[in-house]
Protein: LacI family transcriptional regulator
Amino acid sequence: MVTIKQIADLCGVSRGTVDRVINERGNVKTETRDLVLNVIKKLEYRPNPAGKALSARKNNPVVGILIPAEGNPFFDDVIRGIKTAAEKYEIYGLNILFHTTRGYNIRAQLQILDELKNKINALIISPINDPLIINKINEFVDEGIFVVTLNNDADESHRHCYVGSNYVNGGETAGALLQMIAPPKANIGIIMGSSKILGHRQRLKGFEYSINKNNDFRIIDIQENDDDDICSYDKTREMIIRYPEINALFIVAAGVYGACRAVLSLNRQDNLTILAFDTVPTTIEMMKNHVIKAVIYQHPYRQGQRAMQIIFEYLVNGIDPDKTKHIMKNEIKILENL
Amino acid sequence: MVTIKQIADLCGVSRGTVDRVINERGNVKTETRDLVLNVIKKLEYRPNPAGKALSARKNNPVVGILIPAEGNPFFDDVIRGIKTAAEKYEIYGLNILFHTTRGYNIRAQLQILDELKNKINALIISPINDPLIINKINEFVDEGIFVVTLNNDADESHRHCYVGSNYVNGGETAGALLQMIAPPKANIGIIMGSSKILGHRQRLKGFEYSINKNNDFRIIDIQENDDDDICSYDKTREMIIRYPEINALFIVAAGVYGACRAVLSLNRQDNLTILAFDTVPTTIEMMKNHVIKAVIYQHPYRQGQRAMQIIFEYLVNGIDPDKTKHIMKNEIKILENL
DNA sequence: CTGAAAGCGCTTACAG
DNA sequence: CTGAAAGCGCTTACAG
Structure:
């Protein structure tokens, strides 16, 4: 374990100077800088995060969090992950400012972002993919705020990291699974949230890619429910009544409960194979009732936890993230391994 | 953020005394002890792990690791998890002594444990469930060594933590999944490792529990392959030849490759539904060849990582683990979500 | 451009 | 039974 003190002694300079070199604070003669850098390299110096964390106590770093969680139980586990991690890191002096919005409202996101701007050192956001939001994220980055996108990426922006799932792969996995668990010849109805939402389009794309490889599987109809359970109920009912040959249902996003209730209202639960995403309580209920066969799961708790961890390591331990995309695997959950 | 200094000032004692109370080092008058404890409680004092980590640098803590990994590729990912974490923690002064054995050899485990005993502060072990090993673990615990069992528990011992999966649930999940992906009426052949190994027995139990709920599914035969691919090949061939009605194969532990090769040698891959555990390279190969339909996955990388993390937090940050059993979920993997 | 000193929160001898 | 001091590895004013 090499320390700054050792580097300083070996180079015949003070620890302050070594610190200036390591952290690129300037005000160092080129020659001494080169000397220090060489010794650092030769001794494979790595800073001790505990030392960093201790002196970072004076910074009182703050993380702003902005998530469209209201009315969307999917985010409950994400938030649990964030808050559990935040509690763990509180003792290091890391604090959070927690905000939620209802649905994907650009104006609401912008307003909260403006409020947060001069109060935070890092931001966790599940952004809307809109130029106004992208610009705002870039503003934050330009001011030295560390930005992590969570569950939904904004890769056109200059955000530092994304934590979330691979949506195309989620759809593809769902498609392949459905071919295993549905009857040999299946007519599929699809209920999606909104084609305006990137993740939903990507899941659909992956699903279609997978299904189209199989001549015995056909997609009969696709309807949008705007992530609303009542709308989902109506649209699903209409779809199943109109196309009674449908024997498999793929629910791309929210509105799972409404869709299942529609199936139940038509008493079709025993001859319809239903596949959905995420393990919100109403979905688990429908799995227990054997209405939903399986779901694709994207580790929501770990998503929240990981986002906080990345920021903690950056702000407190002074460690840069090792990659920009932190992708949680899509898992298959049935009742038994929930 | 309350610090020891603040507690000391408020109580009118020195920081040394507060430290003595917090860490129960004795040599404190009962009255001062009570006073300090009260203030600590009132102010909700939590020690700052960074401070602890820094002063722990002088301890040079060492973790012994003992895993029956030789010739068992399952452990490759577990070890990757351990080593990646160990590298991350090295800078804090935490070092490891890494040992493996071939198979479950009691004598070999005991010998390495004796070698390690006076060199380590913590132990990660995937123990054999034998009284000799249990006793040895208890010896370690009695000497103040922090013991974590990994992937296989020894809950009759005094080990501090277990990190691993729930084997009964793994079998149950496999059974439920098989009922979804096998033909409506299935005759099942089972290839297990050894009934001497607890985890294998537990998986079998969970599987049988799940299968026995279904009158259309029957278990035709159970053979043991001793986790050996050649043996697995022979036993599987014999089984399938003897019971040609078998149309589903459940492989409980290792020897997956041998079993699959047996199926291929009899050209039965297209009318046999094969289910196995874990994603070792040869298993993935057989999934790509569409010989294996699905596997149950137990997060091996995270198991290794978590074991190291628990020990790091204990030894370096001075944080006791929040629970004794750290169970990784059983996940279902198909080719698409590997 | 550089160094000496103090401080972050904890623990550890040492002295009494 | 208790306190003062030094140290773990880093950063931050401050002085020159």
Summary: Chain B has three domains: 4-46, 60-159+300-328, 167-297. Residues 1, 3-5, 15-16, 19, 23, 47-56, 58, 318 of chain B lie near DNA strand C (CB under 10 Å from a C1').
